[in-house]
Amino acid sequence: MQLFPKTHFDFLGLRWKFFAISGLLLGGSVVSLMTRGIKYGIDFTGGTELQISFDKKIDTSDLRKALNNSGLNNPAIQRYVGTNTFMIRVQNLNGQATDALDSQLKNLQAALPGNTFHVDSKSYVGPAVGKHLFQQALWAIALSLSGIIVYLGFRFANPIWGLAGIIALFHDVLATYGFFSLMGFHVDLLIVSAILTIGGYSIHDTIVIFDRIREKLRIMRKESLRQVMDESMNETLSRTIITSSTVLIVVSILYFFGGKVIHHFALAMVFGTIVGTYSSIAVAAPLVYEWTLRHERGRPDEKPVVSQKNSASSNKYERKSKKPVKNA
């Protein structure tokens, strides 16, 4: 299916602008991670997490004071915009019993007379379990990325193509982590699953573009590498936009109508889908072209890069140099 019958975008001509945008994005992510860090959910740190909804409007400062008075000390409070629903996290309560938590919730209700609240969800994770889950999440990320690296090594004979795909994948993962760090959102197992999904989607989109470039290199033997890569990316543009739009529609529906429990998961998917689509076009393929242009020019097993201007002048010179043949 072709959304755009014929496009002629000069993607490689914009590669340095793309690199500048990616540099700003990744630089901001690194600065945020170094200064603000990552807030891990109770899945990894251990503690109690409550989601409560009030019938009437309440200020965050009043809620914090009531929580401290009820025994839930030093809470992390997050309000859902436009609602009276709060996510309350209290770290490391040393495995308090359910009865104790229920008693503290009763004290909280007593501290807020006239404003009834409802507990939408509550969960507790011990510190030992949280540490184990954190290690398991790291193993899941490491093994997934290792599997992708091995797959790319077998899929493409030239390791530069695989390396460019991995760089684009890390670009998306780091940008998503930076986004969550900047916004102050907590990272839990659900967010880790979103990041792994983003990585898989991004590398799949990159491989589709790389496959089209590889096919075109066999067909368009007389054209420059830049022309082949630009035409390949333009030909796959319809597929990329249709796929990305379909994914965005689904995750946007989850974000707006899926409920508060998967709110951050859907937000990570929305952000990651946009960044992943961008990196496949603006990071992976331009990196391959720039490396080939700088380090592999003139190699017999690679198509040498010849500009259209030089090619035209060369053909003109050849036509002038030909001598007319006299008839016998």
CATH superfamily of the largest domain: Multidrug efflux transporter AcrB transmembrane domain
The portion of residues forming beta strands comes to 5-15%
- Largest β sheet strand count, sense and barrel closure: 4 strands, antiparallel
Shape: elongated
In short:
The protein is of the alpha+beta class and 328 residues long. The chain contains eleven helices and six strands.
Note down, in words, how this protein is organized.
This protein has 2 domains: 12-39 and 130-309, Multidrug efflux transporter AcrB transmembrane fold (Up-down Bundle), CATH 1.20.1640; 47-125, Alpha-Beta Plaits, CATH 3.30.70. Helix content is 65%, strand content 10%. It is built from 11 helices and 6 strands. The protein has a 4-stranded antiparallel beta sheet. A two-stranded parallel ribbon has the order 1-6. Helix 1 crosses helix 6, helix 3 (60-70) packs across helix 4 and helix 7 packs across helix 8 (225-235). The radius of gyration is 27 Å and the shape is elongated.
Characteristics:
single chain, about 325 residues, alpha+beta, Multidrug efflux transporter AcrB transmembrane fold, Alpha-Beta Plaits, 2 domains, two-stranded parallel ribbon, 6 strands, about 65% helix, disordered C terminus
Chain-wise SSE layout:
Elements lengths: L14 H21 L3 E2 L1 H4 L1 E8 L5 H11 L5 E4 L5 E7 L6 H14 L5 E9 L1 H29 L3 H25 L2 E2 L1 H31 L5 H11 L1 H21 L5 H33 L12 H14 L7
Helix pairs in contact: 1-6, 1-10, 3-4, 5-6, 5-7, 6-7, 6-10, 7-8, 7-10, 9-10
